[in-house]
């Protein structure tokens, strides 16, 4: 399993709503993420910068790239777009993070 991390940006003042929506994640979205190989997915917030830091595990042969074409993923992005920085397609802007240290 590979561990990856990326950063996203939350709009100021949206912490409570972001958490509320994720606490009620759609079962079909959770199923799609798992089917694509996403496992042990965490999202952390830095309150000082409104940066979200996501960490997840995925196996070799994962299908995460296919998620962007999934209807449920596009609907989720549209649902979340008022809370976060997004690109022209409504996808959250992501900056992949370079691993710097790991203690196994």
UniProtKB/TrEMBL annotation:
Record keywords: Carbohydrate metabolism, Cytoplasm, Isomerase, Rhamnose metabolism
UniProt cross-references to SUPFAM superfamilies, sorted A to Z: Dimeric alpha+beta barrel
GO biological process terms held by the UniProt record: rhamnose catabolic process
Pathway in which this enzyme or protein is active: Carbohydrate metabolism; L-rhamnose metabolism
E.C. code: 5.1.3.32
Top-level class of the enzyme under EC nomenclature: isomerase
Catalysis: reaction(s): alpha-L-rhamnose = beta-L-rhamnose
A GO term from the CC aspect: cytoplasm
Bilayer-crossing regions: none
Keyword Transferase: no
Active site: residue positions: 22 (proton donor)
Binding positions (substrate): 18, 41, 76-77
Gene Ontology MF annotations: L-rhamnose mutarotase activity
Pfam families in the record: rhaM
Residues in coiled coil: none
Main localization of the protein described in the UniProt heading: cytoplasm
Family classification: Belongs to the rhamnose mutarotase family.
Oligomer status and interactors: Homodimer.
Protein name listed in UniProt: L-rhamnose mutarotase
Source organism per UniProt: Burkholderia cepacia (Pseudomonas cepacia)
